[in-house]
Amino acid sequence: MREHDMLEKDEIFSKVLRAGRRTYFFDVRATKAEDYYITITESKKFTEEDGSFHFKKHKIYLYKEDFTAFKEILDEMTSFVLNNKGEEVISERHQKDFKKEYFSEKTEGEEEPKTTSFTDIDFDDI
Questions:
Q1: pLDDT digits (tens, 9 = 90+) for 63-82
Q2: What does the pLDDT read at residue 42?
Q3: What are the residues whose beta carbons fall under 8 Å from the beta carbon of 9, sequence distance 6 or more?
Q4: Alpha carbon of 43 to those of 14, 27, 94, 100: distances in Å?
Q5: Cβ 92 vs Cβ 101: under 8 Å
Q6: Rounded alpha-carbon distances, angstroms, from residue 74 to 19, 65, 66, 85
């Protein structure tokens, strides 16, 4: 069998989900015994400071005997997340320039963080 024929045989059914820097590939493939299984590939693009880029890929092989349990757990996990955090995406944390701000009450003996963005004035001096 020619290599081209073997490649076509692998491409039984495919779907692509593009999600920002990530792309998910869902592929149905065939075993040597002509049974089907699914591969899920996450491809994530990383850009270097010089403008060059590379991709990191992670792949899951999912066989028919695991479909039901996998789907049940995936459904349970996604429901848990959506029920507890809703569907709104907190995307600002994924921005390159995101800086987490911490807000907390001062506890006894704890010093306030020093900052240079304002002048400390004692109202008795005015």
A1: 999 999 999 999 999 999 99
A2: 95
A3: 30
A4: 15, 14, 17, 27
A5: no
A6: 19, 15, 12, 16
